[in-house]
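Bench log, entry 3. Co-assembly request; chain sequences pasted below exactly as received.
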Amino acid sequence: MTDRVGRVLGTQRSSTREFQVLIDDDAYLQLDDLVVVPIEVPGFGEVDTYGIVTEAEAEYEGASFATDTRRIAEEGTLPAETVRTAEVAITRVDPEVWVSPNPGVSVSRATGDARDKALYADDMRRPLPVGVGRDGEPVFVDLDFFDGRKGGHMSISGISGVATKTSFALFFLRLLTGRPEIVGEGANNLRVLVFNVKGEDLLWLDKPNALFDESDRAVWDALGVEPGPFPSVGFWAPARQGGGGVVTPDASGRMTDINPFRWTPREFVDEGLLRFLFTDASDTRNQLSFVEERVRSQLRRWAADIAGEPGAVVLRQPGPGGHREAVSNVAADELIIRDFSDLVSVLERLLDPGDGSDPDLAWTGRVQSGTVAAFVRRLYAAQTRLGHLIAAGESIRIDRQRAQVSVVAIQNLHDLAQRFVVGALLQEVFDEKEESGQRLPLSVVVLDELNKYAPREGSSPLKEMLIDIAQRGRSLGVLLVGAQQSASRVAQEVMENAAIRVAGRLDAAEAERSEYGWMLPSTRARARLLKPGTMVVSQPAIPVPLVVNFPFPPWATRAEEVDHTDDPDPFDVV
Amino acid sequence: MPESSPRVHVEGWDPSYGSPVAPDEGLAPSESEVDTTVETAAWAPIPGEDDGIDEVWFVDGIRRVDARLTIDDGEGMPISGICGSHAVGAVRWDRVGRSSSVEHARIDRLAVSGGGHAIEIVAPPMTYRAASVAGIDPAELVTLFHGSMRTAEARLTAGLADSGAFVIADGPVNDTRPRDVVGYIKTHRVAYLTGPEAGTIRALTPGTRTPLFLLGASGSFARYSWYQRLAVGPEGHGWYGIVRAEVAAAVGLEQARLLADRSAVLLPGVAAPAHTDARAPQNLVPIGALERALRRELGDQALVLRSLRSASVALGAVA
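Structure output for the full assembly:
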């Protein structure tokens, strides 16, 4: 079960948090190795202390001056002994008698059952592998802390490019969707919404990776998932600007098996999407949000369907019961909204007539005329950036039921439009779950660059929404996998509610921030050096963060990686 | 090299160790016979020669008085005793493998009682074996204790030399048998050389030595001796870094020359740099390390004293 690697060092105090090991001459301990120390506690009996190596050190015992090194190693005139020690952070004491290890006691490598105990794997009801340790064996997270039973959400931090945040998020999703026997009832109808906010990394999840090596297979085998592309993925992209009569997706790289989406004016009004046009953090400081709120509710009251024109609305003063039926008698001077530019001009006529007449107070409220003008200017700005996402006609929405994973490609949109789409879709997911009031089926949302959507400073409807998801999503089964370059720039409420925290390589200054207080000092130091494919994972069930490696993806992450060997030959006409 | 007015030098050794040049009576002329013509009559520094010996052994011992005893026999005045521990060991310098290791370390603990008493003191895990002096002078106790250490050193030195080793032993040679043992003397209490021969000492550079001179030729304990310089100090005085070495005359003149040549070259290489040792450069690096290792073997002094106290309570003695 165990093999001896050394003894508890006697020249330094051991505590209930950490101790040092004097390593045997014929053994070694490296970072992240797991060890176990049996302690005989007088009056109690045997207690096993488990720990993880956080630092390994070596020095000459007997050398007191720097130049002694030369005398020992080069000239050989000074007798000395090489001493190798390892620092161990205690992860567990079993049974729970919190005593420190006695000096001189034998320390063994924890393998098999002892390894499971060191990592609390024996204690987890639903251990889901999230990578492998340095020993090549799986490292687990307790799913109870992700799917909302005891905790929810995952937060991934790290420098762009080398931290492989998105890769880890997808790797996690692959295990989440690939191990239904562990996920349990939550696996049924589990739906994942992934936003592709930059590059095209996520547009090839359904394609095998040509660079995938058979040597990577062993790791996947250890994790219990057959390496292959995601089996069930739907790809969605916003409708292309000026597509004419045909609605085509705007997704640059990917041409096939990708569907467009947009909203009709009716949907825009009903779902109150106007608020996601005002997601700049500065918008709430002035009175724009006040105007927006009023306009939003007025639109909802005034909008009436037009017979024979699906999705379009006409604004009419409602009767006491509101609009019940579609209108068919549209007059030439009535305010018809068929697309976003219609909406803008209609609102301008109501809010800022321009012909000297007073605006309708029911629409503006008593705000300064400058505020109204600013509001209209915002609408014009939005028109050029996301106007094409709103058009009458049949409803073309994202159908999240079509596949287990829905990838939404918004990388080609302007920031403002990206925030609009993210806000609209998150609201859709959240409203749906709020209505049902059920935690199951689970809905997972993957969102990179979280700092753009829920920045620490200021407030915006999108930020409020994300905070709401972070705080209440857990019980509603809406689980956020958020990624960001610096946790310190994301809303605190969002970070605090993530039960599972993950970090790839961190900027040196960033790693020192209190947002990474869950790391040990040694882990922080290492976080600056982590290689792609290596992450630090913290979860409530284990008191120390674990360093895990995750394998190369078997799905393509770039167009060039797509393996075409199994594609049908276009010349092979049957 | 006469000088018009004396120059003052601050000695490099820690003052608590005394001075390397510590004449009892103005560097008293030696009382034993000195024959400065055994190797050559033409006195000038002679360059040493490294004959490429594979291994060099350094032997040294340390001692510590762990506790003072008072033995009260119920009559007359109480009598003194001491509990002392000494450790003796060797450093093997493997010149081929370029490594050094502490070997053959051995501890001995003695309870020396005055007035003819012999009391063994057991303070687990230590046992102080009984030793006795007839008198009641406390100095006698220490002399016996010190002698015990010197005997252990001599035994280890002889054992190593007999197995073919070349040994550098700390202190004068106490062995008349022809063995390859060089006694290494750090401090100068007696002026063996006078006149022009003494001037040769000032002319020494590291790697050279004085010609051999024979000490005590007519006595039972004749040995060949030489001076050599270990290091040149910054602004050192004429005797800076000078040590004296000796071998038993029984080895013969030829062998004595070989050992002297070898030592003249090897010892400067293991001299302690000024900042690393309180007795630099005379305290050789291997010997300094050996002393530290041996001192560790003796155990923590406070802990030793504490167990001796508990042991003496058990014995009914008064510590």
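The longest helix of chain B spans residues 138-162. Residues 88 and 153 of chain B are 6 Å apart (CA to CA).
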